């Protein structure tokens, strides 16, 4: 392909942009000329347009460079089990990458592909910059509205409903807020791609189940305002749990290195109370983190006694803890035993001897002996419901105020 | 359109002179029992100056039954004292003891990030008064490099995510004290 042909293609693509056919138009025109599949992704490797049947739109790909000196743009493109070789060209303006153009290696000579790819990625940069500017200005308005909504800055419910209608949201329906976060994700130094994948996972699961929630990102959080779709409270909770489980399994598959954390606020009928649901979801998320997955369902309404404990004076809690199971902890330290773990497992399994023995891989008689030892050390009766409650609270305190207890 | 204003505190520079505390009192004419900013000695040779941290997830805002709190688009948490009925829920909920109960008015009040001063293009009174430069204002969405989210002696940040950053505290070298 000589320079004149490349120039002609470039001006044809510019014409496509001027006509408003967008990224799809560019991809189709290029695929027709080179007779090979073409993909365009955004900067986070999410496919914006594709002519390859194995790489559908909106999916995320992974690419790794396998290029040599002769063809440095050669990459391995992965999507699930699909793995193909392709040429990848970054589209950038002022060193800022806006997206990638991917041309599948279909027997074309690398020199032609290189000149074509470079010319097209420049045209593509113009279109991607235009798209980004447009979506950013729209996002700015939506973000400002959602900020006001989530922080209760709009007083009148009618005003909220009217403004929601601008974006097609019926905020007159009862709703609750779900907050998603990735474990140990630091917004300032974290990998922004992962947050984008999390956002997309939430969106795709919700869409799959026919939900149209309001989704937004705020620092390291993905926030979803979910409209109530079931009549009964129990039914709605089960449905929300199902949604959360589906999202969790998808995120586990897409980001295996990080664990997903989630918090769910209460359902409110009035849109001006959404801010409460948002704050509650964040409390449920944080407490869920502290209780180290002991809250299987991260609903704010199911936090129980932990909701009171976390707000209580930390020193007083640490005192209560020491007085309740401090002796046992000391015994463990001195004798190099693990009776604390035994007691914790016993309580976590509803004080069921058989079940605890099974999960701890010990004989029930061994467990009986250990529990007797614990009773002696603590000078307490493990059959007494008050003692059980105190011990349960003490273990909850342990996870909430670990730092104070250490001191 | 939205940002998050916050404080940057350098414990190594703080000499515990309480100028910030006095400047806050003077600027906002708070009564004797109300201290929007407080300086406390940590016993390790360092001091800590704490006011409202205008948190990402403000507990005062969440627990207030009267909806007296708002979080502005610049991240500042404000209280509308006309709505406050003096129930003190916020006073006990805040881990930093930012909302203070005014015994005379029987209402809660708290740091406003010196909003009138900021509107006039000035720094908050505490920051202007700090002659060692231990306190400064930052946009916590883009925090300066070499800062940490918490230091020893600062209350738990996990739940409320306060809008404050700290310069890391280095161990003091005292060659003349054995």
Automatic annotation (TrEMBL), chain A:
Pfam families referenced in this protein's UniProt entry, alphabetically: GGDEF_2, HTH_30
Record-annotated CdaR GGDEF-like domain positions: 153-287
Domain PucR C-terminal helix-turn-helix residues, every copy: 339-397
Source organism, top-level taxon: Bacteria
Family stated for the protein in its record: Belongs to the CdaR family.
PANTHER family: CARBOHYDRATE DIACID REGULATOR, DNA-BINDING TRANSCRIPTIONAL ACTIVATOR ADER
Protein name: Sugar diacid utilization regulator
Organism of origin: Desulfosporosinus lacus DSM 15449
Lineage: Bacteria, Bacillati, Bacillota, Clostridia, Eubacteriales
TrEMBL record, chain B:
Protein's UniProt keywords contain Cell membrane: no
Record domain 4Fe-4S ferredoxin-type: where: 5-34, 75-104
Organism domain of life: Bacteria
Gene3D superfamilies in the cross-refs: 3.30.70.20
Molecular function as annotated in GO: 4 iron, 4 sulfur cluster binding; metal ion binding
Entries under PANTHER family matching the protein: PROTEIN NRFC, PROTEIN NRFC HOMOLOG
Protein name: Fe-S-cluster-containing dehydrogenase component
Organism this protein belongs to: Desulfosporosinus lacus DSM 15449
């Amino acid at each position: 392909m000589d320079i004149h042909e490349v120039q002609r293609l470039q001006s044809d693509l510019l014409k496509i942009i001027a006509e408003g056919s967008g990224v799809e138009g560019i991809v189709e025109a290029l695929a027709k000329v080179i007779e090979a599949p073409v993909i365009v992704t955004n900067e986070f490797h999410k496919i914006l347009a594709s002519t390859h049947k194995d790489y559908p739109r909106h999916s995320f790909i992974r690419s790794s460079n396998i290029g040599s000196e002769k063809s440095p743009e050669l990459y391995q493109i992965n999507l699930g089990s699909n793995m193909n070789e392709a040429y990848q060209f970054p589209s950038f303006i002022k060193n800022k990458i806006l997206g990638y153009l991917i041309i599948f290696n279909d027997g074309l000579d690398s020199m032609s592909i290189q000149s074509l790819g470079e010319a097209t990625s420049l045209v593509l940069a113009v279109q991607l910059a235009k798209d980004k500017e447009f979506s950013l200005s729209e996002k700015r308005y939506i973000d400002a509205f959602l900020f006001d909504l989530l922080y209760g800055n709009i007083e009148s419910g009618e005003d909220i409903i009217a403004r929601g209608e601008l974006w097609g949201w019926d905020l007159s329906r009862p709703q609750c807020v779900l907050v998603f976060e990735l474990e140990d994700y630091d917004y300032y130094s974290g990998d922004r791609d992962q947050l984008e994948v999390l956002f997309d996972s939430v969106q795709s699961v919700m869409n799959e189940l026919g939900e149209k929630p309001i989704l937004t990102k705020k620092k390291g959080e993905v926030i979803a305002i979910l409209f109530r779709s079931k009549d009964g409270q129990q039914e709605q909770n089960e449905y929300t749990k199902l949604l959360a489980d589906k999202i969790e399994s998808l995120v586990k598959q897409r980001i295996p290195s990080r664990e997903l954390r989630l918090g769910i606020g209460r359902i409110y009928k009035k849109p001006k109370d959404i801010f409460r649901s948002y704050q509650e979801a964040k409390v449920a998320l944080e407490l869920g983190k502290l209780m180290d997955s002991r809250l299987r369902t991260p609903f704010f309404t199911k936090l129980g006694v932990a909701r009171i404990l976390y707000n209580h004076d930390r020193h007083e809690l640490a005192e209560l803890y020491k007085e309740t199971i401090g002796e046992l902890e000391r015994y463990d330290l001195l004798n190099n035993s693990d009776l604390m773990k035994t007691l914790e497992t016993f309580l976590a399994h509803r004080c069921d001897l058989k079940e605890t023995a099974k999960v701890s891989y010990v004989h029930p008689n061994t467990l009986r002996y250990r529990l007797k030892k614990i009773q002696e050390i603590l000078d307490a009766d493990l059959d007494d419901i008050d003692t059980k409650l105190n011990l349960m609270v003490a273990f909850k305190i342990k996870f909430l105020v670990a730092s104070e207890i250490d001191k | 359109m939205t940002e998050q204003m916050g404080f940057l505190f350098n414990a190594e520079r703080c000499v515990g002179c309480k100028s910030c505390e006095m400047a806050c009192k003077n600027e906002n004419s708070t009564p004797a029992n109300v201290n929007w900013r407080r300086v406390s000695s940590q016993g390790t040779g360092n001091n800590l100056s704490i006011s409202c941290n205008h948190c990402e997830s403000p507990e005062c805002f969440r627990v207030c039954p009267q909806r007296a709190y708002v979080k502005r688009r610049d991240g500042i948490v404000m209280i509308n004292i006309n709505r406050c009925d003096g129930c003190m829920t916020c006073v006990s909920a805040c881990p930093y003891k930012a909302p203070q109960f005014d015994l005379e008015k029987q209402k809660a009040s708290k740091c406003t990030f010196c909003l009138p001063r900021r509107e006039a293009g000035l720094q908050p009174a505490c920051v202007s008064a700090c002659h060692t430069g231990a306190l400064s204002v930052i946009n916590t969405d883009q925090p300066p490099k070499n800062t940490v989210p918490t230091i020893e002696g600062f209350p738990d940040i996990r739940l409320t995510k306060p809008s404050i950053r700290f310069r890391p505290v280095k161990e003091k070298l005292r060659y003349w004290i054995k």
